[in-house]
Automatic annotation (TrEMBL), chain B:
BP GO annotations: aerobic respiration; electron transport coupled proton transport; respiratory electron transport chain
Record carries keyword Cell cycle: no
Membrane topology (UniProt): Multi-pass membrane protein
PANTHER family reported in the protein's UniProt record: CYTOCHROME BO(3) UBIQUINOL OXIDASE SUBUNIT 1, CYTOCHROME C OXIDASE SUBUNIT 1
Subcellular location as annotated: Cell membrane
Protein name in the entry: Cytochrome o ubiquinol oxidase subunit 1
Species the sequence originates in: Methylorubrum thiocyanatum
Main location group: membrane
Length: 313, 700
C-alpha cells in the first residue's frame, strides 16, 4: 500500500512533466528511453521464428542450431581473441615487444592452422549429414495418427489449401488438428514461391508444373504466421496467412463450417481465384472438383505442350 | 504506314509514360516524387557534368588523356571512378529501403511496392556488377602490372574495351532511372517472374542487357589479366615469387573466365524467352526455371570469390606492410587461395537447398560449402600470425584490415549456419541471409577495396590521403555496419522475409530503427571518404611522396616514382626472390641509375574502346525499347570499329631512351635530396616516400 502511493503520484505527474520539458531534452529522453527499451521490445522478435518452436520439426531444427552455435564458438573464439591481442601487443609504440621481420613460416604452426579447422569441419559434417537426413522435409513424421493431407497452390498473392480427403478448400488460412502430422504437397499457379511457417518447419519452394512436399506438425493448439518469402510482385509483402492448429473437435467444426460455405472450387473458380490480387479475408470452398490439384499441375507441365497444340488445331 | 506504326518503328515502345516526371505529374504521390527526383538527379547530374567539362575546358583532356588511353593505370583509375559513382547511388538506395522498412510497420511508409522492388533490384545489381566488380578490376588493373614488373597488360586495347563495356552497362542502369523502369526481379532475376508472361515491361530487359554488357567486359578482363600474369612477368618473377595480391588476381581472373559464361548464357536464354517466345524458363511448354537457377548460381557462387579474393590479396599486402614484416605462411596462402578457387565451383546448390532436392544432395553440397571454411580460416590465421612479432601501425588501411579480420569471422559463422541445410530451411530468404552476405561482402570486399584504395592512392597520385578523415571514415564504416546488419540477424531468426516493402509485426520495429541508424552511418562513411579525398587534394602539396615508398613496403610497385611514369619501369627489373624491394632496401641496392636505357614502346591511345562501349550501350538501349534500327546500328557499329582496328598497324608510340633516362635521373636526384623517415613519422608531411631502414633486423 505504501509503495503504491508514490508510484501513482509519479504516474499522475508524468504528462505535466513531459510537457514542461524543452523540446530537445525531451527528444533525447525519448531516444534514450527507446534504446533502453530495445532489449525488452526486441526480445519477442525471436518467438516469431523457429526459436519459438511450436512443433517437432522446428524443435529439432532449434536444437541443431544451438549445437552448431556451440561448435562455432571454437571457430570464432581464437580469431576474436588473437586479433586484438596481437595487433595491440605488437604495436609500433611498444618497444618491449619482439620483432622478427624475416620470420614467415613454422611447421607446428602450420599444423595448428590447418588441422583444427579441418577437424571442426569434419565434426560439423557429421551433424550436418545426420541433421539433413533427419529433417528432410519430404520425410513423413513419426506418429500414430495418419497425416492430414493438404495440397497447397501458391498464387499471386495468396495461398490455396485443398483438403482432398475432406473435399474442402480454403484460401489464406491453413487449419489442421494439433498433434497430428500434416503432409503438404505444393505447387504454384504462378511464379516460384517459398512456403514458410517459421514456428513449425522450414521452407520449401512451390513451382509451377512440379510438386514439392513438406511435413510438419504442431505440438498443441495455437495460431501461427505463415508466409511466402520469395519475392513475387507487388502484393508480396501482404502474402501472409494465419495457421491455426486446432483441437480435433475444433478442426471438425472448421471443416463443417467450410462445407457450409457452399462455394465450389472447380477449374473456373480456380482461374478467377488465380488472378493477381490480395485477399482481405480468408475464405473457404465447401466442395472441390475431383483431382483439381492434378489439373492445376497439368496446366504447366510438359504434357501441356501437346494439349496446347491440340487446342490450336 | 499509320502513325502508331511509324512511332513503333522509330521509337519502339518508348512513350511519355516512360518518363518518371510524367508519371509523377499524373500520380502525385511521395513515392512517384522520389522516383522523379532520382530521375532528375541523373538528368541534372548529366547536364552539370557537361557544363563543368565545357567550363573547365576538360573535354579534350577527358577524351585524349583518359577515355582513349590504353594505359593500364589510367584504365584502373577510371574503373574505380565508375565504382565510386555507382556506389553512391546504390548506397542511397539502401538507405531509402532501410528508411522505408523502419517506417512501414502497419503503415504505408514512403516508397510504394513497385519502387521498393526496383530499389532492391538496382541496389543488388549495382553493388555486385557496377560497384564491386569495377572497383576490384580497377585495383587489379592498376597494381598487378606494377607488381609483376611489366609495362602493361597483355592486351591493352582489350582492356579499354572491357572498361567501356562495363561503363556502358553502368550507363544503362543510370538511364533506367530517367527513362522507364528497372527490373523488380532482384539482382538474381529469377524467371518465370522475370519472364514475359509476368513482366512484359522493360524492367527485366534493362537488367538483362546491363548485366550482359558487364559480364562480357568481365570475361574479357579475366582473359586479359590471366594472360598478363602468365606471360608478362619480369625476368626472375616466378609464380611463387609473386606478391600475394597477384595470386589472388590470378585466381579471380581464372574464376572470371569460367564463371561469367554461365551468367551470359543464362541472361541470353532469358532474353530469347522474352524476345523470341522461346521456352527455356517459362512455366508452360516445357520450360523449366530450375535450369536458370542452376546456371545463375553456377556463376553466382564463384562470383562471391571473384569479389572476395582480390580483397584477400589487399589484406595480405596491407597487413604485411603495416606490420613491417614478411607475410606469414606465403605457401599456405597461395594453396588456400587456389583451393578456394576450385571449391567455389562445387557449392552452387547451397543457394537453393529449399528447392526440394533429396537429403543426400543437400548434405553433399552443405559439406562442400563448409569445406571452404578450412582454407578461408587458414588465411585468417596467416594474417594474424603476420602481425605476430611485427611492428603494427594503425593507419587507416590497417584499421580496415583489422576490422575485416574480426567482422569477417562473424560472417563466416553465419555462413556455416546457412551451410547446414535444415538451418537454411528456416532462415533462407529471410533478412538473416541478407545480414550474412552483407557480413561477408562488406568486410570481405568493401573494407578491402577501401584499404587498397588508401594504400595505393599515394602510388597512383603522388600524395597521401588524409589520415584523420580516413580514420573518421573507418569508424563510420565499422560502427555503421554493426548497427545496420546485426539487427537483421535477429529479425531473420524472427522470420522476417527479405525484400518486404511493408511489415505487420510491431516486434520488428526497434531492430529496424537501429538498422536504419546504421544505414545512415554507412552513408556518412561514404561521405567522409569523399571529404577525405577533397581534403587530401587540397593539401596535396604537403603530403607529396615523390620517392614512391610511403609505407616502407616490400613489392616492386613501391620501387618506382609516385606517380609512376607511363611506361612504369625505366628498366625492366630482375627479380631473384620474394619481397624483392624489401631485400634491395636492406642491401641498399635500390634507387640506382641503370647502366643503359632503351627506347620504350607504349600503346597509342585508341578510340575503339569508347566507341565499342558506347555502341554496345546504344544497342542495348535499342533492344530494351524494341527500337530495332538502333539495336542493329549499335551492334554493327561496334563490330565495324573492332574489325577496322585490326587493319591498323601503327599502334605504338616510342618514348626515346634519352627521355626515359632524363626522367629517371630527375627522380634519382629527388631521392638523393629526400630525407628518409622512421615509421613513426609515416603519417606526417615529413614522409616524402623514402623509408629509413628499420631497426636492425634480428635473424629469425
Amino acid at each position: 500500500m505504501t509503495g503504491a502511493r508514490p508510484m501513482s503520484r509519479t504516474a499522475g505527474r508524468r504528462p505535466a512533466a513531459a510537457a514542461a520539458w524543452p523540446g530537445r531534452t525531451r527528444a533525447v529522453a525519448v531516444a534514450l528511453g527507446a534504446l533502453g527499451l530495445l532489449p525488452l521490445g526486441g526480445c519477442g522478435v525471436l518467438d516469431h521464428g523457429f526459436l519459438g518452436a511450436a512443433g517437432p520439426v522446428a524443435d529439432e531444427t532449434r536444437s541443431l542450431f544451438y549445437t552448431v552455435c556451440v561448435i562455432l564458438i571454437f571457430v570464432a573464439g581464437p580469431v576474436l581473441v588473437l586479433t586484438p591481442i596481437f595487433a595491440w601487443h605488437y604495436r609500433l609504440s611498444n618497444t618491449k615487444s619482439a620483432y622478427r621481420p624475416q620470420w614467415g613460416f613454422n611447421w607446428p604452426l602450420e599444423g595448428f592452422i590447418w588441422i583444427p579447422p579441418a577437424i571442426i569441419v569434419v565434426v560439423l559434417a557429421v551433424f550436418l549429414w545426420r541433421g539433413t537426413h533427419r529433417l528432410d522435409p519430404y520425410k513423413p513424421l513419426a506418429a500414430d495418427a495418419s497425416p492430414v493431407e493438404v495440397q497447397v497452390v501458391a498464387l499471386d498473392w495468396k495461398w490455396l489449401f485443398i483438403y482432398p480427403e475432406e473435399g474442402v478448400a480454403s484460401v489464406d488460412e491453413l487449419v489442421f488438428p494439433a498433434g497430428r502430422p500434416v503432409h503438404l504437397s505444393l505447387t504454384s499457379g504462378t511464379v516460384m514461391q517459398s512456403f514458410f511457417i517459421p514456428q513449425l518447419a522450414g521452407q520449401i519452394y512451390a513451382m509451377a508444373g512440379m510438386t514439392t512436399q513438406l511435413n510438419l506438425a504442431a505440438h498443441k493448439s495455437g495460431r501461427f504466421r505463415g508466409e511466402n518469402t520469395q519475392f513475387n510482385g507487388m502484393g508480396f509483402q501482404n502474402q501472409k496467412f494465419p495457421v491455426l492448429a486446432e483441437s480435433e473437435d475444433g478442426y471438425r467444426a472448421w471443416l463443417a463450417r467450410a462445407k457450409r460455405s457452399g462455394k465450389t472450387l472447380d477449374m473456373d473458380a480456380y482461374k478467377t481465384l488465380s488472378a493477381r490480387s490480395v485477399q482481405a479475408q480468408p475464405s473457404q470452398f465447401g466442395s472441390v472438383a475431383p483431382k483439381l490439384f492434378k489439373s492445376i499441375l497439368a496446366l504447366d507441365d510438359a504434357g501441356a505442350h501437346a494439349a496446347h497444340k491440340e487446342a490450336k488445331q | 504506314m499509320s502513325g502508331d506504326d511509324l512511332w513503333y518503328w522509330l521509337l519502339g515502345r518508348l512513350d511519355a509514360k516512360a518518363l518518371p516526371f510524367v508519371r509523377a505529374w499524373d500520380h502525385p504521390t511521395l513515392s512517384e516524387f522520389i522516383g522523379a527526383g532520382a530521375g532528375a538527379m541523373v538528368v541534372i547530374g548529366g547536364i552539370a557534368m557537361v557544363v563543368l567539362l565545357t567550363w573547365m575546358r576538360w573535354w579534350r583532356p577527358l577524351f585524349l588523356d583518359w577515355l582513349t588511353s590504353l594505359d593500364h593505370k589510367k584504365i584502373g583509375i577510371m574503373y574505380v571512378v565508375i565504382a565510386a559513382v555507382m556506389f553512391t547511388r546504390a548506397l542511397i538506395e539502401a538507405v531509402l529501403m532501410r528508411t522505408q522498412q523502419s517506417l512501414a510497420i502497419n503503415a504505408p511508409g514512403i516508397v510504394a511496392p513497385e519502387h521498393f522492388a526496383q530499389l532492391f533490384s538496382t541496389h543488388g545489381t549495382i553493388m555486385i556488377f557496377f560497384m564491386a566488380m569495377p572497383f576490384l578490376t580497377g585495383l587489379i588493373n592498376y597494381v598487378v602490372p606494377l607488381q609483376i614488373g611489366t609495362r602493361d597488360v597483355a592486351f591493352p586495347l582489350l582492356n579499354s574495351i572491357s572498361l567501356m563495356l562495363t561503363a556502358g552497362g553502368a550507363g544503362l542502369v543510370m538511364v533506367s532511372l530517367a527513362v522507364g523502369d528497372f527490373s523488380t526481379g532482384g539482382w538474381s532475376g529469377y524467371p518465370p517472374y522475370t519472364g514475359k508472361a509476368f513482366q512484359p515491361g522493360v524492367g527485366p530487359d534493362y537488367w538483362i542487357w546491363a548485366v550482359t554488357l558487364s559480364s562480357l567486359g568481365t570475361t574479357l578482363s579475366g582473359l586479359n589479366f590471366a594472360t598478363t600474369i602468365y606471360k608478362k612477368r619480369c625476368p626472375g618473377m616466378h609464380l611463387m615469387r609473386m606478391p600475394l595480391f597477384c595470386w589472388t588476381a590470378l585466381c579471380t581472373s581464372v574464376l572470371m573466365i569460367f564463371a561469367m559464361p554461365p551468367l551470359t548464357l543464362a541472361t541470353a536464354l532469358l532474353a530469347l524467352d522474352r524476345y523470341a517466345d522461346f521456352h527455356f524458363f517459362t512455366n508452360d511448354l516445357g520450360g523449366n526455371m530450375m535450369n536458370y537457377v542452376n546456371l545463375f548460381w553456377l556463376f553466382g557462387h564463384p562470383e562471391v570469390y571473384i569479389l572476395i579474393l582480390p580483397a584477400f590479396g589487399v589484406y595480405s599486402e596491407v597487413i604485411s606492410a603495416f606490420s613491417s614484416k614478411e607475410l606469414y605462411g606465403y605457401i599456405s596462402l597461395v594453396l588456400a587461395t587456389m583451393a578456394i578457387g576450385v571449391l567455389s565451383f562445387t557449392v552452387w546448390l547451397h543457394h537453393f537447398f529449399t528447392m526440394g532436392q533429396s537429403a543426400d544432395v543437400n548434405a553433399v553440397f552443405g559439406i562442400a560449402t563448409m569445406t571452404i571454411a578450412v582454407p578461408t580460416g587458414v588465411k585468417i590465421y596467416d594474417w594474424i600470425w603476420t602481425m605476430f612479432r611485427g611492428e603494427v601501425r594503425f593507419t587507416a588501411p590497417m584499421l580496415f584490415s583489422l576490422a575485416f579480420l574480426v567482422t569477417f569471422v562473424l560472417g563466416g559463422l553465419s555462413g556455416i549456419m546457412l551451410a547446414v541445410p535444415p538451418i537454411d530451411y528456416v532462415v533462407h530468404n529471410t533478412v538473416f541471409l541478407v545480414a550474412h552476405f552483407h557480413n561477408v561482402l562488406i568486410p570481405g570486399l568493401l573494407y578491402g577495396m577501401i584499404a587498397g584504395y588508401m594504400y595505393w592512392f599515394p602510388k597512383a597520385f603522388g600524395f597521401r590521403l588524409d589520415e584523420r578523415w580516413g580514420k573518421i571514415s573507418f569508424v563510420c564504416w565499422v560502427a555503421g555496419f554493426y548497427l545496420a546488419f546485426m539487427p537483421l540477424y535477429v529479425l531473420g531468426l524472427g522470420g522476417m522475409a527479405r525484400r518486404s516493402q511493408a511489415l505487420f509485426e510491431p516486434d520488428y520495429r526497434p531492430w529496424l530503427i537501429v538498422a536504419v541508424l546504421g544505414a545512415f552511418l554507412l552513408l556518412a562513411g561514404l561521405a567522409t571518404l569523399f571529404v577525405q579525398l577533397f581534403v587530401s587534394v587540397r593539401n596535396r602539396e604537403a603530403n607529396r611522396v615523390p620517392v614512391g615508398d610511403p609505407w616502407d613496403a616490400r613489392s616492386l610497385e613501391w620501387s618506382i616514382p609516385a606517380p609512376p611514369p607511363e611506361y612504369n619501369f625505366a628498366t625492366i627489373p630482375h627479380v631473384d626472390r620474394r619481397d624483392v624491394f624489401y631485400w634491395r632496401k636492406a642491401e641498399e641496392s635500390t634507387y640506382r641509375a641503370a647502366e643503359r636505357y632503351d627506347d620504350i614502346a607504349v600503346p597509342k591511345n585508341s578510340w575503339i574502346g569508347p566507341i565499342v562501349g558506347f555502341a554496345g550501350a546504344i544497342c542495348a538501349f535499342g533492344l530494351v525499347w524494341h527500337i530495332w534500327w538502333m539495336a542493329i546500328l549499335g551492334l554493327v557499329f561496334a563490330w565495324v570499329a573492332v574489325i577496322a582496328r585490326s587493319f591498323v598497324r601503327d599502334t605504338h608510340r616510342i618514348v626515346p631512351a634519352a627521355e626515359v633516362e632524363a626522367r629517371e635521373r630527375r627522380w634519382l636526384a629527388e631521392v638523393e635530396r629526400a630525407r628518409p623517415i622512421p615509421r613513426r613519422l609515416e603519417e606526417t608531411p615529413q614522409n616524402v616516400g623514402l623509408a629509413e631502414p628499420f631497426p636492425a633486423p634480428v635473424p629469425a
